[in-house]
Design brief:
The complex is a heterodimer of chains A (128) and B (148).
Chain A (H helix, E strand, L loop, with lengths): L8 H5 L5 E10 L3 H5 L2 H13 L3 E9 L5 E9 L4 H9 L2 H4 L3 E10 L1 E2 L3 E4 L4 E4 L1
Antiparallel strand pairs in A: 1-3, 1-4, 2-3, 6-7
Chain B lengths: L17 H4 L9 H6 L4 E10 L3 H5 L2 H13 L3 E8 L5 E8 L4 H9 L2 H4 L3 E10 L1 E2 L3 E4 L4 E4 L1
Antiparallel strand pairs in B: 1-3, 1-4, 2-3, 6-7
Chain lengths: 128, 148
């Protein structure tokens, strides 16, 4: 680990990953029963985005204390620009049908990492 | 809908092998099973916002980056960086960390020099990562990698 100082911080920050992604923060705005009707189409859409290599990561956000779902979803996607990101988000059946509304942000991943362990013998993996 | 392989009927057995079966057609009947088989990786999302002047926030840049790198080194940091509006205006930082519970997540966030000094405040959420993925290419010859 390096020691970060006022003198080297610029060179350290110029060397971080700086991976540009888009964050779609989506919020349910219709009753749960109505939203549920689009669940199948939404999951199909998510899997389609995953298959096309667009979806970086997605899932629900819950309140940290209660663990209760907050009708909030965090969807992280790969897109060239804002227009493309919006097109992808708009095509989500939840958004196209007015069940959920979203806010769009650019996210730059600078720090972080993961452990990936792949086993050939049973074709399984651990992602930590 | 682009599917590289024809959709296959979804059973408990083949759901594990979606990597080879690829896209399945999601129906009312199989959606429960598909959701159950998802990664459901539990992470904690820290959305952090400046509550002091830019100079005061900047004064703690080195300490903050040192802390971020130490979290990465300890395997706690999943991914972190600035959130901007599409027009480029910086609105917050998004820090995604590994922690076993809320208390641990809060202790990690509280120890960020910027939170400790009160120049930023944060909101904490639990995130369940269900869908997504990446391509990782590792080159042995020059020890480089590409994460897409």
């Amino acid at each position: 680990m390096v020691t970060v100082t006022q003198d080297n911080i610029e060179s350290i920050m110029s060397n971080v990953l700086g991976k540009k992604l888009y964050v779609v923060l989506t919020r349910g705005i219709k009753p749960a029963e109505e939203i549920r009707k689009f669940r199948v189409a939404h999951i199909q859409h998510q899997m389609d985005l995953e298959e096309r290599g667009i979806l970086f990561a997605a899932g629900p956000l819950a309140d940290a204390v209660s663990g209760q779902k907050q009708r909030l979803g965090l969807i992280v996607i790969r897109a060239e620009n804002e227009a493309e990101a919006r097109k992808i988000a708009d095509s989500d059946p939840m958004h196209a049908n007015g069940m959920r509304q979203y806010e769009l942000f650019q996210w730059s991943i600078n720090e972080g990492g993961f452990n990936l362990r792949i086993r050939y013998s049973n074709q399984s993996y651990d992602f930590d | 809908m682009v599917a590289r392989n024809p959709p296959v009927a979804n059973t408990g057995d083949n759901i594990r092998n979606l990597g080879s079966a690829r896209m399945v057609a999601v129906t009312m009947e199989n959606v429960g099973r598909i959701k159950d088989a998802m990664l459901k990786k539990k992470l904690w999302v820290v959305i952090t916002k400046d509550v002091a002047s830019p100079e005061e926030v900047r004064a703690l840049s080195a300490a903050h980056i040192q802390y971020q790198i130490s979290l990465e080194e300890r395997g706690i940091m999943f991914g972190a960086g600035g959130l901007r509006k599409p027009d480029g205006t910086r609105v917050a930082g998004q820090i995604v960390i590994r922690a076993k519970d809320e208390a641990e997540a809060r202790a990690i966030a509280d120890a960020d020099p910027r939170h400790k000094a009160g120049v930023r405040t944060y909101e904490l959420f639990e995130w369940s990562m269900n869908e997504g993925g990446f391509n990782l290419r590792i080159r042995f010859s020059d020890r480089s990698y590409t994460l897409d």
